[in-house]
Amino acid sequence: GENVEQHPSTLSVQEGDSAVIKCTYSDSASNYFPWYKQELGKGPQLIIDIRSNVGEKKDQRIAVTLNKTAKHFSLHITETQPEDSAVYFCADISNFGNEKLTFGTGTRLTIIP
Amino acid sequence: NAGVMQNPRHLVRRRGQEARLRCSPMKGHSHVYWYRQLPEEGLKFMVYLQKENIIDESGMPKERFSAEFPKEGPSILRIQQVVRGDSAAYFCASSPGTWRTEAFFGQGTRLTVV
Predict the structure, then answer these.
(1) Is the CB of B41 less than 8 angstroms away from the CB of A106?
(2) CA of B106: which chain A residue's CA is closest?
């Protein structure tokens, strides 16, 4: 992709509540949208991804939605737990050529016990 | 099956020295990607390699930085004549094919230039 914007940069949520992180992309050729979780001192870990032919995907407490017309996709975490506290990154890949991920700037999620 | 292994985990270099960062991909993975992460920032693409080939180095600074992925052994990211601005976390990821198959990141090497 060309450019990925991510909001908010920080998010505090009461334990048990839901958290939503949103990303917008500019490259209309983007067709793969993964989400990564990065804990302190560790590498990014893929937690869920979605491809352009799908509008929504869910895996237990985590879901991702994609709106190709509006060029935005969102991460939803329900029933948040303290171990969900981390930095979350969205990313995209263009369908053409280069295969490299373009990352958003990250969201620091804090779950308040 | 061990994950992506990066070493060293922490590296301290004085200005002007060379830094060599190593990445051993997961078994069976022939694609390696290097990313740089500055404090409190996202990951920026540097270079994409397959065995013995540099596929895309559009994110690599033109000077002082080089990368290789030889037929045998780990991928190496080399930074010559390091400067303070090179201080960052450098992450390597590997995949068996393209990103459309799941790619895994290593734990990173944190380079500090003093």
Answers:
(1) yes
(2) A43
Contact B42 A105 (CB under 8 A): yes
A98–B56 CB contact, under 8 Å: yes
- The residue among B64 and B96 whose pLDDT is bigger is B64
- The mean of the pLDDT values for chain B is 92
Helix (H/G/I), strand (E/B), else coil: B103: coil
Contact predicate A87/A108, CB 8 Å = yes
Of the candidates A45, A101, A106, the beta carbon closest to that of B45 is on: A101
Left if phi > 0, otherwise alpha if psi is -120 to 50, otherwise beta: which for A97? Answer: left
